[in-house]
Design a protein that fits this description.
This protein is α+β, with helices and mostly antiparallel strands. It is built from three helices and two strands, in the order H-H-E-E-H. It has a two-stranded antiparallel sheet with strand order 1-2. It has one domain.
Length: 94
């Protein structure tokens, strides 16, 4: 499989689903360290399990995709309603 095929957006969700389906014991080392700065400015580290991260990321992407679909539906409805109102207004002025 080509690198391009592996990085397409639609494949990312499939890859996250696959990773999220693993058990941590299935991977040699499913954890990695993340360095970050606290609100107070202190440097700190956190250990993150890639499987847990994939599960949370997949959930977030799914929720965001649903919101996008809902907003697109509302926008489409608003545009259609506006077209009807504009047509009605132009007919009533004739």
């Amino acid at each position: 499989m080509s690198d391009q095929a592996l990085t397409k957006n639609e494949n990312i969700i499939y890859q996250l689903e696959t990773l999220a389906s693993y058990e941590p014991d299935d991977l040699d080392n499913p954890e990695f360290d993340v360095a970050y700065e606290t609100k107070e400015g202190a440097d700190t580290m956190a250990t993150v399990c890639c499987i847990d991260m994939a599960t949370r990321t997949l959930k977030l992407i799914t929720e965001l995709n649903k919101k996008i679909d809902d907003l697109e539906g509302a926008l489409s409805y608003a545009c259609e309603s506006n077209d009807i109102d504009d047509e009605h207004a132009s007919n009533s002025t004739k």
